[in-house]
Amino acid sequence: MKPVLAGGIVLDPQLPLAVIAALGVVAVVLVALAFWRRLPGWWLRGLAAIVALVALANPSLQEEDRAPLSDIVIAVVDRTASQGIGGREAQTEAALARLRAEVAAMPGTELREITVRDAPGDGGSRVMTALAEALAEEPRARVAGAVIVSDGQVHDTELAPQMPAPLHLLLTGKRADWDRRLIVKNAPAFAILGEELTLTLRIEDDGAVPEALQGEAQLSIAIDGGEPRWYSVPVGEDLELPVTLPHGGQNILQFEVQTSEGELTTRNNSSVTAINGVRDRLRVLLVSGEPHAGERVWRNLLKSDPSVDLVHFTILRPPEKQDGIPVDELSLIAFPTRELFVEKIEEFDLIIFDRYRLRGILPLQYLENVRDYVTRGGTVLVAAGPEFGTADSLWRSPLADILPVTTTSRVLEGGFRPKITALGHRHPVTQGLETGAPESGWGRWFRQIEIAARGAGQVVMEGAEGKPLLVLAREGQGRIAVLASDQAWLWGRGYEGGGPQLELLRRLAHWMLKEPELEEETLSAHAGAAGRLIVTRRTLAEVPPGPVTLTAPDGKETELVLPEVEPGHYEADIAAPQVGLYRLKQGELQTVVALGPPAPKEFERTIAAPDVLEPVLAQSGGGVLRLEDGAFDLRQVAPGRVAAGRGWLGITPRGAYLTQDVRVAALLPGWAWLLLASVLILAAWLREGRLPARR
């Protein structure tokens, strides 16, 4: 652009403007007085006063050499997730190419392109933030207009800047688009096991939904990645879904709406809700066969937990004891054995037999009930003492059908330090328990019952002579554990440094209660920091598991090989840039995990519409053009004129320039102003002096 010459008159007052203004007032008064007295030279006096005042203002002629600056058009290109569906990427590229060509055809006009990506933390499309930042970097006097290429779903309109020129929208998408989405309105983070909670779901249709697909939709519900169940549900209505959590810990509820032909996207057809199941009260039945040093430790340990309801049944006086005490003085009330072991046995979460032996107090029928209780999903822990190898051992009762051990009736006496077996280092109940233990090992125990694992029994701890100390097993739908020593109380009292009694019991109870995080064979995943996904595979097998198939929200599959971080514990930390539902599968194991909120902002509304941006566009005088309507033109319009029409958008040339040189010269020299004023004063005197004097 060629430089141009521009000029004008500037003032450099000889006196302060207030003084010149005061002199002007005085001059006006004097001229008015002369006019009132009908002096014929009053107008010459006025001209003289004007010349004098102008001379005091010192007018000068200023000339500038100006270099014109180009106008700037800002293009904000929305490339967030919702812009990648329904052919919008191709529309965006075509619109951007057309905009570049139109701006290039305008002399003295430049294009600034700003790309908007998905905002971190599910911030959605921050188009207005990007526009405000672009305006801050450019001289506002050069901005001739701005164009947004988007589907109109912007999430920061409250941050829209004040535009110095028209702001327009090139709208992607099609009028025939339609979409169906799933909304989970209320999903608590925690729920009490056994108590029913209500989730509110809603399926909504947006856009031009085909008539044949209106009214109903197919909804699937799956728990923890299991087989989904399908239901036919109405569209556009709140659905009250009663849910009872199946287990403690994290429960993954997956909801999915069946995909329909022609639907804009399936990214908002599914939702994953994670609810932690907590037990209101853990009901434990502790059956002590006889008083001993460890009994008090068991009781104190369980009573110290406010979430545990403990029923303690202790046999203080065995039937063979003959001390002459009348039967009616042995107790105030009869212990409710029938109620506990027949009528309400299913209400207990855990039954512990602590050094119990068969003495006829509990009939064999009651022990059969305990056996059936385990096979139906209950849990039993047997803390064995010397009596476990005798003729009245629990091993010789109906419980023998489910016990994972056999006994040799041998009692091993002498100090030994409990150790974790090779299998125990991989088992979630005992894995990592040795972390922080003294170099010499945990405190010693001094008695152990010799047992041997059988069936599916898993030996996770060993004691004296390398014999099994803690054996775990699954039986039917329930679980059972055998601790082959009554010396665990030594750890509770800190003997020789003690041991992890509390943590071992906690893990053991959670494993027996089927907490998912303590399952032996698991595939799980959870969100890490800064868009990371942590995938975990736990197994008891010594052979590394195969690769995990990871399916991203956009359907792309990736094979993950998980490195081993601990024995039986494999983990990978990977980048997960997309917000949404990830599916993982390895063999027969599968799970799902949601990164970000259940419904990302980018897919809350997917139908392209200008409604959100229209108030902002109206303030600047801009307009909206749908890209599906064809090509558009870019025109230059004067400020204040209509800036948009059918198939065209307008920008306002700003005429900005850069001053390269300034020259200032006095309009008249000082003596010329003085001469002119003197001539006018003299003329007034001569005119008034020629008139005859009035009598």
UniProtKB/TrEMBL annotation:
Source organism of this protein record: Gemmobacter caeni
Record-given protein name: Putative glutamine amidotransferase
Phylogenetic placement of the source organism: Bacteria, Pseudomonadati, Pseudomonadota, Alphaproteobacteria, Rhodobacterales
Ranges of residues in domain Putative glutamine amidotransferase: 366-492
Keyword Amino-acid biosynthesis set for record: no
InterPro entries in alphabetical order: Class_I_gatase-like, GATase1-like
Transmembrane segments: 15-35, 42-61, 664-686
Annotated PANTHER family: BLL2462 PROTEIN
Keywords from the UniProt entry: Glutamine amidotransferase, Membrane, Transferase, Transmembrane, Transmembrane helix
MF term (GO), any: transferase activity
